[in-house]
Amino acid sequence: MTSTSLDAAVDTPLRALPAPARLRVEHLREAFGITETAPRLSWTPPAGTVQQTAYRITADNGWDTGKITSAGHLLVPYSGPALQSRSRFEWRVRTWNTDADGTETASAWSDPMPVELGLLDAGDWTGQWIGPEEPDVPAPGDRPGYALHRTFTLDAAPEAARAYATAHGIYELFLNGERVGDQQLTPGSTSYNTTLQVQAYDITALLRPGTNTIRAVLTDGWYRGTFGYTRDADMYGSSTALLAQLEVQSGGSRTVVGTDGSWQVSRTEILSADLMAGQRTDFRAGTDDGGAPCGSAAVVRPGSYVTLTGPVAPPTRIVEELTPVSITRLAGGHQVVDFGQNIHGWVRLTMLGGTGEPVTLVYGEAVDAAGDVTQDHLRPHDFRRPGQFLPAGQVDVVTASGAAGEVFEPRHTTHGFQYVSVQGLTTDLAAEDITACLVQTDLEPLGGFTCSDPRLNKLHNIVEWSFRDNACEVPTDCPQREKAGWTGDWQLFVPTAAYLYDVTGFSRKWLRDVRSDQWENGIIANISPSAGPGVTSAEFMAFTNGSCGWGDAIAMVPWEIYLATGDAGVLAENWDAMNRWLGFIRTTAESQRHPVRADAGPVPAPHGKYLWDTGFHFGEWMEPDGPKPDLFAARSADHGIVATAYYRNTTAVMAKAAAVLGRAEEGRALAELSENVRQAWEKEYVGPDGQVTEPSQADCVRALAFDLVGPHHRSTVTAQLAALIRNAGTHVGTGFLATPYLLPVLADNGELDLAYELLMQDSEPSWLTMVDRGATTMWELWNGIDADGTAHQSLNHYSKGAVVSFLHRYTAGLRQSPGSAGWERIFIEPRPGAGLTSASTAHKGPRGLIEVQWAVVEGTTLDGVLTLTATIPAGTTAEVLLPGEPAAVVGPGHHTFRAGTGADTILSAPVPAGTPHNPS
User: Which of 344, 383, 796, 888 would disulfide-bridge 908, Cβ 3.0–4.6 Å?
Assistant: First the structure.
């Protein structure tokens, strides 16, 4: 084998480097109103950098690091003047960098990034918690919106002004008739008993000399509205409330206008607003002109100031707007609007009915045989009335007042929908009359994929959309039926999500709620945010908490965020909660035995104390040919084969996390425990022939993915898995938990062709069945739309979409090296299959943009040769493995490689001087 190296394969970097880019504070693009007094700063080295050698940070508050000799550019601690409430500074950075020939060059200065702190202490607040007087509170789902308002006078236009606001409920602020800011659904979803976010706004431009009016619209939101599958209400309290404070700076003095008993309360045009049920608006009943209509005095309510915090995640916004692809009037008069894409949010309707004529909007993901919107598949079971179902909700109603320019935009509810049935409107809608608003946490896109197969490109697209639709405030399971932050969904999808989007702050915010919701005995609640352990441990479905695969999110999610970013802080934040969860597992395994196992032998085997085989577990959940889910039967079922597998995996993850955190002794103990659990699983669930004794695709996948079987059994279990797949007609047989691992396990164990056969399978159950039946988001069930066109359960669940990680890591061939974090060391190893002739992927990692693309071109001088190009960012080492070629280790730059079947040459770039070889 020979290897040819050509310098021309590397683009020569320019001598004049551009500036550092992608400045971040605690992973945030916007650091306004934060409450972190020791923030960490990050940036991406300038394009063309091989290695950063030094940096200098300056800020307009006098902070100047001077030139610091360091390659560090991630999470550099702020070390300037002490930060206090309202502190503001702008920082910028320049770096010194070496290029490909070793020359050190100083970069230009970056653009500045502003940072401003919010109110840090309870003593900073003069505003009081206030709310409406409600002698008779309507039933949940039927509660109105209230306006809380007051006027105040300013002698002059302000030099600077800020508003700080939060609520028990959802609020919107208006100043002099103008909406304040572009954030939606504020203050956002958190475990309100322990954490309540405060939004900070720059309102300087909205104030004027003379009389000004501040007005807030307040509705139930997550605080006391109906929520989740069970539609429980009043999760955090029975009364809504507002806390707001305006601070106006002018002429060296500060004027403060805070909420108190002098504020007035009025009814609004919002007759009812509920996140699940929908919103009813009657424009004859309210005003939105910024005036101060007559009303009653606000009531001062008790409320906490110690739970208040600034943002750790990006805000929620309208991030995209869609126009209809069709509008169809049915024989019965309904107009069905198809937006061509399943989304989360609401519509903006500019064509209303006549004065006093209600128009009803019914939102859904599917249409029935008559062409109208159906919600039948979205109605949740009523667990308190077996055999009965609860309403699906997702219905808005608007009544016009007849005033010119009225626009209906129900910003106090959200829906999951592709279709809207507009009922009661006699005028024919035009496309410009109705717009769909996609509402999500404003996450930065990081990754992408494309290949030569249009159906795989469509599959990737629907997975991205499904995640976006479920990324509103917290990672939800679905955006219509539940809108709940299920732990199991996020733990299995977060590796995929972290490749496609920056979900670091988003996940840290959610993990804070998971910790808050953890029970005293260490159980992780199924859903976070929730009403807290005092409620979730006492409700009638409390027994469903503590399941393997769901509770393990407390270890698996922080670990995946660490791998994506290199930020060990997320491990440290969650370390105690991980240990408490592991303590629950260990205590359960050591003190309890499943009755079936106990009946078989009164004296437990030595390995029995490592088997987690009691308690409630969801199990694999939703296997295509598996049993119909029965939560009550699962209380006594033996899911030890699944639970013990997760016991092994969580201890292994925690052992690695301990090593990162410098907890060497704990790490060794955890590694030993993990090996003991592995041996117990193998002894209990692997027969003398080396096969899994409870054969299923899912259990074989876990045996390989979690290293539950020793090297001597891997080939046998792989063959068993392949046989199970073949016996299923080469169809996927995994359900919820094992699906993300299925194709990688096959590829890593000599069954790459079978992995591609499953990927390209287009009969049910399969991913391409969804594509071929017109899905625009991932389905909860493999037959979400059956062959007859009937919808089943949610059509917007991202969990099965974790398969696209296979496209990134195997088809395109980009993945991190074992032991690497923050994309410092990478593997590039395309594993083509299924007749694909090209693929490309890109990921914007902490060190910069990584790009990989390959193609096999026929009918040219390079006939049949695989040509790969790669862009490697600063401070990164890549090991490139092509079919039939020796490994090549390269550093930053642009590289081209060629390899053909049976060929013995590779076109590559030399490793820059000083670049270490870090084999896996």
Answer: 888
